[in-house]
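request received
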Amino acid sequence: MAGCGSWLFFLTVCVVFLFGANAEIKFTIPVGKFFTYELMRETFQNDFEPLSRIYAGHLYNDPMIFKCNKQNFPDLPEWLRLTQRHPYDNGFLYGTPTSPGKHTIEVYAYNKRSYETTRHILVFKVVAEKMLPYQAEFFIKLREIEKVLPSSVQDEIKQDLQKLWDTEDLEIVNITNALDRGGRVPLPLAGHYEGVFVKVGSEQYFSNCLLRVLTPEHQRQCTAVSRVKIPGGCNFCSVPSNCITWCKTELIDLTKQEPVPPAPTVGLGILEEGGDFNPPESPPSRDYFPDYIVTVIVPLIIAIILCLLLAYIMFGRREGVIQLYHHYTIHGNTDDLRSMAGNRSVTPPLSTLPMFNSRTGERAPPLHSDSPSIPLIAAQHDPYSDTLPR
Ligand SMILES: *[C@@H]1O[C@H](CO)[C@@H](O)[C@H](O)[C@H]1NC(C)=O
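response:
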């Protein structure tokens, strides 16, 4: 029994290795046709725990995030977009290729519980096809891109539009999030949606209902009234959330579009021969004197005027003279106080002792005079005498 279990294990590992690691899913997409691929979380979950379905009987439901890029490139091809609303939601790769070619897309799934990653490879072969000549774009207000991408919803929308166009021959050409077209992020309230643009195309000319969009009456109504009803007999929406906003409908007639101008002819990449190089003549001489006056002389004159003004205020005017007088009297009073203090036969306080010079062992000479040029700190002859005030 145990041997059988280990054999089963070995076989499963081999199968997972063969199909899980090298799985390459191939698609062929015609140019100008809308393409959707749903990144199923269950498939990737199976890669993370290939044996849990066998042993535990069920798969975990891990949150995971998808990242996609073109192989050996940092990003996706410009026509392809990835959307995933929430780590517990499936992702979608969608878009409309515009030119033929082959793209190898790497899809990485990051498991947010175990931090494991797994990779799938998708190979898109885009084949050339004629564009549908008559196209129309509709705005669906009450939808979000992830809600529209599942094929069942795409079919619902297509069925309504087939009735509006009055033809079975209708293909979805493009589906875009309104946020990618300058729409606003809605309030996080019920009944507010991002909105999606759905473009469809057909070989058949527009129906009478659709042609009403081109009438001047329609344009007048849409600028005047904020909410215009779809004209009677043209309202085919079976599910309320799939209803189109009539005023944002646009018809595109590719048969009437003027042909693209021819591409410019590419030359040899070598300049034509054309004589010798003539250096340009030296520029005419310029008179710098006005600049000199403005930048040097004028500020100098202003500085001199300011100096004279200050001198006049300080020396010529009464306030200045009084200030000078004050200055002299304060000076004289200080001298007086000093001489009075010098006459007192009190030993100067300890704090006035000179500093002991540690390098020469000297002390500053004693104070003999009271002239203001001599420092106020008096010298002491005998450092051991009692210097405390008595
Ligand atoms: C589809 O819509 C996107 C976004 O508006 C745009 O960039 C792209 O060119 C469209 N593709 C086609 C084929 O119309």
